[in-house]
Each structure stands twice: as structure tokens, then as C-alpha cells.
Amino acid sequence: MKKTLLVNASPHLKGSTDRAFNLVLEKWEKAEYIVLRDRKIIPCIGCQTCAKAESRGRCIFEDKDEVKAIFDSLAQREKLVFFSPIYFYHLPSLFKGFIDRAQSFYMLNPAFLPVKKAKAVLLAGRPKGEKLFEGARLTLKYFLQIFGYEVEVLGLRGVDGPEDLDAHKEQEILDFVQSW
Ligand SMILES: Cc1cc2nc3c(=O)[nH]c(=O)nc-3n(C[C@H](O)[C@H](O)[C@H](O)COP(=O)(O)O)c2cc1C
User: Fold this and answer.
1) Which residues of 132-167 are buried (b: 16+ CB within 10 A; e: fewer)?
2) Most buried pick, 48, 93, 123, 130, via CB within 10 A?
């Protein structure tokens, strides 16, 4: 297993997130990657089965999709880099549905201590907006704590399509992911 994992969390094929993700993947041969939209992910339905003592944190969907395997893979890395667009001031539902499933891991081990570092590249169409990345940043912070990571976010504004990732923005992404 490689030490670095890149996670593409955009539901959109060939959009701006794909462009940013591929840019890093090409430069970073030592990384493995996961594209969430290509994996089977059933969103959390809040049934609370994982919270019952006899369940020991087990999710009712554990054998029905790939989420447990992906979480296990995330937990074992030294470096994680996420790529996601902003939809309605937050992470897209594909990514959020996946994150909500971490509740079963939280039930097992709520006493976390972040010792490793994760990064997230977030792309948003609006050129302005003080709190454009705030909801996503908080969600990523508390999600990744469960697996022992603290997260640093690069939010890029004014990116509605791959063509908006000019040379300056591309360099910003590469500098961000390479400065560990
Ligand atoms: C459903 C939806 C909601 C969006 N909401 C926002 C938003 O709240 N703020 C913003 O700046 N851009 C918003 N956008 C624009 C996207 O953030 C932007 O186009 C991004 O580059 C899309 O990345 P993708 O091609 O990987 O999907 C939204 C786009 C979609 C499709």
C-alpha cells in the first residue's frame, strides 16, 4: 500500500475537479487514488444501529457497498489529498453521503487524536464569498479527525469549468499539495 492517497469526490466527469485531480495525479506518481463516483456508496440513513452496544459500531450497509473498505484504506495512509467542488456552499451529496457513514467509526472511537495531515482542494464557481468554503472545511475537519488526520484546505474561487484553472491556479494547487 502506498503512503499517499488522492480522493476525487466530484460527481462530475471531466469537470474542474477532475482537471485539478488529474494535474496532481500526473505529477505524483507515488500516489494511489480513489474516484468516489465510481464506487458503490450507500448514504447513511441515520438508523443508529451502529450506536447500539451489541453492534460494536457495525453499519447495516457494511457488506452491501464499498464504504468500509475505503475508510480502512484512508485510515492507513500518511498523506491524504481530497478534491471536491462546492455545491450550494458545501460538499456535493456524493461526498457528504460517504462522510456521514463515518458515524459508525465515530461510535467505535470518538476519542481521536489527529496526528497525520490531510489536504483538501475545493473548487467553487463564485468569485467571491467570505464563507464559501466554511461548511466544507468544518465537515472535513470533524470527519477526518475520526481517522487521525487534521486537514488543511485550499479553496479556489471563480472556477466553474476546467478552462478556469489557468496556469497560476494550477501552480497554486501543485504548491499546496507538495508543501507538506
Ligand atoms: C449543484 C451545484 C451547486 C453549486 N453551488 C455552488 C455554490 O454554492 N457556490 C459556488 O461558488 N459555486 C457553486 N457551484 C459551481 C461549482 O462549484 C463549480 O462549477 C465547480 O467548478 C464544479 O466542479 P465540478 O466540475 O467538479 O463539478 C455549483 C455547481 C453545481 C452543479
Assistant:
1) bbeebbebbbebbbbbbbebebbbbbebeebebbee
2) 123
Pair 68, 59: CB distance under 8 Å? yes
CA 172 – CA 23 distance, rounded (Å): 11
State if residue 15 touches ligand 1 by the CB under 6 angstroms criterion.
yes
Q: Which helix (H) or strand (E) holds 13?
A: none
Can you identify the CATH homologous superfamily of domain 4-178? Flavodoxin domain (3.40.50.360)
C-alpha 85 to ligand 1 mean position (Å): 6
Could you tell me the three cell numbers for 7? Answer: 480522493
Rg of the chain, C-alpha, whole Å? 16
Q: How far is the CA of 1 from the centre of ligand 1 (A)?
A: 33
How many helices, marked H, and strands, marked E, lie in the chain? 6, 5
Report the pLDDT value the prediction gives residue 111, as an integer from 0 to 100.
Answer: 66
Q: How far apart are CA 40 and CA 151, in angstroms?
A: 25
Res 142 pLDDT > 90: yes
For the stretch 53-100, pLDDT in tens is 888 889 999 999 999 999 999 999 999 999 999 999 999 999 999 999
The residue nearest atom 22 of ligand 1, judged by CA position, is: 85
Q: Where are the domains of the chain?
A: 4-178
